[in-house]
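BACKBONE GEOMETRY TOKENS
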Amino acid sequence: MKSLSSFCIGTRGSPLAQAQAKELKSLLTAAFPELVNRVEITVIKTTGDMVQDRALSEVGGKGLFTKEIDDAMLDGCIDVAVHSMKDVPTWLPDGIVLPCMLKREDTRDVFISEKAKTIAGLPKGSVIGTASLRRQALVLHQRPDLKVVTFRGNVETRLKKLGAGDVDATLLAMAGLNRLGRADVATSIIEPEEILPAVAQGAIGITCRADDEISQLYLAALNHDETVIRVSAERALLRVLDGSCRTPIAALGEINSDGRFFFRGLAARPDGSELLETKRSGSIQEAEALGKDAGEELKGRASPNFFDAVELS
């Protein structure tokens, strides 16, 4: 509960989520000396953390990682919440705003395996573990001879399963490994041209109550404008496609060295049998409109049953 003596950050309990909360705490106390010794971190268990035996698409999608945290915020138990932006639902609950995104980390996926250096190098029939329908679809598009199975849990859990031989390979986000100090486990980095990242991958978003002017003032000072521009464009595409954990969607917005905005968007059938891709280029001021327009194009090109679910094993 907010008081003169405390400022509470809410977060999930995974090591990565806590690392992100500590990053926010460090930035807050550096920017606002009056918060030193006042900032607390509260761990909140979410439904997404508790359900580990099924794909997210089976149990409700992205909101499973935010609902309990949102409820705690609206009840006044926490002041702000730290989220991986790719877990944040397209529409925020009433009474909650997103006034801050921290500087974005590496957006790429990585390939991890002791059997091969790359996806292309895996033997026929190899098993890849992932909880992401995007990764499933894009892997199977390249290698329909591979098998993809559900692979849930935090980074260390997945690495242990991989080491135990449960699967032959897995894909993780480079950003998460960097934040955990585990970049060394990556066998190879996958460039966006091969597998386009998830919408908002590598970005951290901070939410607070819409009527909490003090928290909004603190967070505004930490907001990274370039990240907001890029992620807002990607989420605009997601809104148009009504994206959820049941829809394999990918997007990446980038600001080129010449100051122009370059956008790539993608939608796929969950089994990888068909891929729709598009690109846009324009001014930074047009970024969000470009993302929306790209989404409209993909939606128009998709057949009525394009997003029919094909569940992981």
Summary: The CA atoms of residues 24 and 50 lie 25 Å apart. The longest helix spans residues 15-31.
